[in-house]
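Hi R.,

As promised on Friday, here is the backbone we talked about, encoded as structure tokens. Could you run it through your design pipeline when you get a chance and send me back a sequence?
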């Protein structure tokens, strides 16, 4: 039985991508990631490399159901 795991975090930090990828590859975990924003213009200006995100499949068709962007929170 797969367990659903939802992670909520403020922005896409590059050092978190490998952790999320490892969780997404686990056969017993159905991972969903919720980001409050893509970046924080008042703090870090990290580049977001979406192609490295294995928890967000290329093409984005399934990405909508796995990665959520919340704005105005």
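Update: got your reply. Pasting your designed sequence below so it's all in one thread:
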């Amino acid at each position: 039985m797969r367990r659903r795991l939802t992670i909520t975090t403020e922005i896409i930090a590059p050092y978190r991508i490998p952790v999320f990828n490892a969780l997404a590859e686990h056969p017993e975990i159905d991972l969903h990631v919720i980001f409050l924003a893509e970046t924080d213009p008042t703090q870090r200006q990290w580049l977001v490399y979406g192609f490295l995100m294995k928890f967000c499949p290329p093409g984005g068709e399934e990405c909508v159901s796995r990665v959520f962007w919340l704005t105005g929170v």
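One thing I noticed while checking it: The beta strands are 3-9, 29-35, 67-69.

Thanks again,
M.
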